[in-house]
């Protein structure tokens, strides 16, 4: 997008009053924001798709705040643990997110925008009109050009037209879209796909699962004593395992532990061997790691060339809870 590209009016900034709490700000209203360029981003702190946008949004906030840009995060939780205000504060604080965040535990702001995505960006001009939106990741250059255009419309004459320089790493590194062949995989029955253990999932019932002799690409299986809930799959006895056949550079999983269970230790293998140089941030080269809090865990990051691999994670303690696999 060039600085002269036209931006049509898509609607008006709705009220934000449905937020259950605010971080880093008093509650904001459209009237408070009149005269400012605003970007509103919907997020939830365990979402890898949102995490990979964080370095860019933070960089825009730093560069353009003094020119009249206001960045607002709207934290609309996907999983039950993401309703906890202290966990939200801790997660966002650890990422260095210090711009205003509306905590949207009742999805009131989500509904006011008629939103359906994590992440989603809405770009609002100084008159309170939504002029652009972007759903999902990437498109960072176009998004920044929109910010520059809207700031220029306010009369700012000293907006630097260079783009921010961002070099993300860790979980923030963009997916390797050219080699990624595996979609996100939920392990709760409400959205589960690709489940391959014989007999299928038993909703809400304590069940001993076994693995099939072979997994095809994008299939996964359980072994051991598990209870599969709508969103959360919980291990009842030590030694349970999840296996997944995937194709991608990164494998992440959102994990937690049952109340009172304490830390849960686990062992990760890749094609039956320790991951060694393919270990992610949350395991060592032997594949050893610990679930210490509810969040996204990066377990595999491998170098090219990519191929189909079989991932497995064995939990050495009862009480492990799994939510969703994501890939990059």
TrEMBL record:
tRNA-binding: is it a keyword of this entry? Answer: no
**Keyword Cell membrane included in the entry's annotation:** no
The domain of life is Bacteria
> Which Gene3D superfamilies does the record cross-reference, listed alphabetically?
Galactose-binding domain-like (2.60.120.260), Glutaredoxin (3.40.30.10)
The molecular function GO annotations come to: isomerase activity; oxidoreductase activity
Q: Which InterPro entries match?
A: Redoxin, Thioredoxin-like_sf, Thioredoxin_10, Thioredoxin_domain
Annotated ranges, domain Thioredoxin: 7-152
**Sorted UniProt keywords:** Isomerase
Coiled-coil annotated residue ranges, if any: none
Protein known as: Thiol-disulfide isomerase/thioredoxin
């Amino acid at each position: 997008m060039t600085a002269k590209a036209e931006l049509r009016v898509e609607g008006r900034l709705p009220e934000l009053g449905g937020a259950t709490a605010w971080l880093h700000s008093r509650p904001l209203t459209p009237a408070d924001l009149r005269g400012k360029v605003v970007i509103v981003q919907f997020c939830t702190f365990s979402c890898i798709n949102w995490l990979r946008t964080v370095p860019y949004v933070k960089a825009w906030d730093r560069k353009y705040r003094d020119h009249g840009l206001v960045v607002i995060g709207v934290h609309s939780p996907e999983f039950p643990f993401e309703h906890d205000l202290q966990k939200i504060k801790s997660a966002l604080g650890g990422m260095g997110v210090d711009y205003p965040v509306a905590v949207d535990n009742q999805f009131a702001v989500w509904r006011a925008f008629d939103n359906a995505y994590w992440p989603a960006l809405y770009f609002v001009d100084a008159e309170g009109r939504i002029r652009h939106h972007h759903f999902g990741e990437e498109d960072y250059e176009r998004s920044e050009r929109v910010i520059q255009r809207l700031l220029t419309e306010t009369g700012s004459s000293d907006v630097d037209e260079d783009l921010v320089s961002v070099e993300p790493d860790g979980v923030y590194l963009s997916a390797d879209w050219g080699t990624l062949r595996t979609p996100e995989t939920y392990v709760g029955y409400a959205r589960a796909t690709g489940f391959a253990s014989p007999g299928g999932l038993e909703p809400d019932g304590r069940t001993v699962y076994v693995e099939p002799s072979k997994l095809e690409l994008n299939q996964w299986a359980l072994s051991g004593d598990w209870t599969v809930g709508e969103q959360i799959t919980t291990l009842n006895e030590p030694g349970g395992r999840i296996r997944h056949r995937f194709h991608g550079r990164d494998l992440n999983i959102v994990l937690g532990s049952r109340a009172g269970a304490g830390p849960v230790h686990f062992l990760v293998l890749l094609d039956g061997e320790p991951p060694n140089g393919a270990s992610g941030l949350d395991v060592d080269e032997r594949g050893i790691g610990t679930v210490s809090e509810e969040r996204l865990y990066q377990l595999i990051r491998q170098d090219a060339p990519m191929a189909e691999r079989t991932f497995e994670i064995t939990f050495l303690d009862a009480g492990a809870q799994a939510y969703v696999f994501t890939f990059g």
